[in-house]
Every structure is written in C-alpha cells, then in structure tokens.
Specification:
The structure is a single chain. The chain is of the alpha/beta class and 280 residues long. The protein is built from 10 helices and 9 strands. Strand 6, helix 9 and strand 7 form a beta-alpha-beta unit. Helix 2 runs antiparallel to helix 4 and helix 6 packs parallel to helix 7. The longest helix has 15 residues. The N and C termini lie far apart (74 Å).
Amino acid sequence: MSPATPAALLRASPLPPLEARILLTHVLDWRHTQLITRSDDTLDEASIARYRALEARRVAGEPVAQLVGAREFFGLDFEVTPDVLIPRPETELLVETALSAMEGISRPRVLDLGTGTGAIAVALASMRPDAQVWALDRSAQALAVATRNATRLLDANRPGGVLTLQQSDWYSSLDPALRFDVIVSNPPYIASGDPHLSEGDLRFEPRGALTDEADGLGAIRAIVAGAPAWLSANGVVWIEHGYDQAGAVRGLLSAQGFSQVCSERDLAGIERISGGRLPG
C-alpha cells in the first residue's frame, strides 16, 4: 500500500474538494498553501485517523463549521459550536447596512438581538471601535460562545468599551433608560413546517435559532413592535428575514410608524433585510 499523503487523501475523498481541504488543514494545523507545498509528505496514522473520522462525520451531514469549530465572517474567525447558528455570508449585508446607518454618529449605541456567536455585534464593534454595543440572547450557551468571540477578536481598550452581553428574551432585560441609534437582528424566521429545517446543515443547528415554531414572523413581530421604545430619535432598525418575507416585514415596520421603510438585496438578488427609521 502506498503511503498516505495529503494529495492521496484529497484525491480519495468523497467530499467536495474545498471541504476536504478545510478538514485536512484543520487536522494537520497547516495553512492551505502547505497542502500544495507538502502534498507528498507521508502522514502519521493518528492524523490520518482524525481526518477520516471528520470526513465520515461530514459525509453523514455534520456542518464543516462545527467539525472545525470555526467560521469566517466579515474577515473575522468566529468560534462555532452546536449551540449557535453558523454565521453565513448573506448576513454580512446586515453588518454593512448597519455601518452605513452609523455614519456621522459619534459613539453610536447599537443593539444586536439574538446575537448567537456574536458575529454581527463583534463585526460592528470591530469596524466601529467607538460604538457602544449591546448583544442579547436568551441562550446562556450562545452567550458563552459570543463572550469568547468578543474577548478574542476585539481590543479590550477600544474607545466604545467592551461589548455588553446579556441573557434576555428580546428587550426584556435591558435598562429602561437605554436608547439606541441602531437595532439589528438576525432572528429565527423559518416557518415551523418548512422542509429546509430537516435538510443540510440546519439539521445540526439549534432549532430555536432557526424557527419560531409558527409562521416564521413571530420573532420579527416582537422586535418591530418593541423597537420604537428603544430607539433614539431618527434611530433605525434592520432585520434579516426569509427570501419571501420582505413584503410582510415592510408592512410590520410601516404599521409601527417607521419611515423610509425599504428592503436591501443580497448578492443573490434576494431581498434579505428590511428596515426603517423612527421619525425624529
């Protein structure tokens, strides 16, 4: 039998090449370029066994991000566990839009509802060091992940201070005196009967971060209804939602008296986020 090398393992893998490379670099603690420069190195049996174990778990459907414990988002490397939603590229639109809303505001106050890994809150805090950021989640396990990500990825001496991470059912634990310039959220928005919940990576992610166990709009209704009480004059709220929910979310925002209500499309052309401004 020929010795097992990175090149041989990748050639024999049933996985898509990118996924196989990610798992192998994780096991070997190599950079991706080393898979090329050291492609014919003979690997030890322990490394081969670890790789094949991860490969088998991926073939069985486990998400790559959970297998390697990390996912890149907005240029930052976030820890991922089965307790949190895996950050996805389309959510970067929410960060970009929130950053635009903060332009011209000194030391903006930002609230991220349902923070999960902390990806949105940490990305915003990283890009706007002066921003004061609150990140809330009802899951203590998710908040533990978000806390580790914030501690590792953010400068402890940033002008806006450390992130305020709180366990909360939406707005319930906030100090009543607080007001925010920007509220953002990527809440559970998949309807309970949607077949996607039993397909692909979603099978392994926390169900409570994916669905409201109803029509998919329950969490969004709560966020929109509560937002006016927590926004500063001219403050904005932006919410990620499903591919077919933009019209419904715009309707909810308009009914609560928001102005400049609109939706923004992601790179696939899907209306991915909707928001509005509280009149001053």
